[in-house]
Amino acid sequence: MVTVPGYANDLTLAAQLADAADKITTARFGALDLAVRRKPDRTPVTDADTAVEDAVRALLSEHRPADTVAGEERGGSVPDTGRAWVLDPIDGTKSFLRGVPVWATLIALVDGGEPVVGMISAPLLGRRWWASDGDGAWVRDHAGERRISVSAVAELSDAYLSTTDLGSWAEHHSRERYLALVDACWETRAFGDFWSHCLVAEGAIDLAAEPIVNPWDVAAAQVLVTEAGGVFSDIHGRPGFTGGSALSANSLLHSPALELLREPGK
User: Fold this and answer.
1) Does residue 3 form part of some domain?
2) Does residue 165 share a domain with residue 130?
3) Looking at per-residue confidence, does 117 or 2 come out higher?
């Protein structure tokens, strides 16, 4: 892995945390004795989710005892000042449960309220993405390790768009506004969750939009997309990972996409 000064030591640690997570998730993927329960918001959580978060928290307690930790399964909040690690042990738990290999562990370091390190590891896809403040965005896959950047597509009519679930737009924003964006774009898919934003950072697709997210879903994605030269905001145009929704794009498409997603009178 290429590292440079700044947050290099934190990036190296994030890779070690991802290695530990990968060992747990790959061992539990497809396990017949996988324990599953539903959280109050009806989303599933498995014994693998909690085992990963516990393992990562233990390593952080050893290596960064002064830092705050906030995770999907064990709680915690991200302060406006100081350093906080933000964890999603398995992003894409529904896929994990069904035997679909599109899931990842997301690890971010937030410093002073801004994500400065992002690590996204998808072992069954054979891919890992990472970025740190000022040092670019990177991916490692079967072809090796390389720096990545967003696309240069300039028109929505030529753009490739992805979301997570069409049904969530009706519940959390506006199905009609999302379909207006769909109609304006060249091609649409639902790669879902972390992968949509990673593909934007790679320049493989041009837009990723989600009407509802939690901070741990997108903190790592924010630094990856912005370090790849893209723009990351919520679907109302407010920058950052705490707005409850997400839109990532190259700088040419972000504003036109926001205009179509905006509800009349808002």
Assistant:
1) no
2) no
3) 117
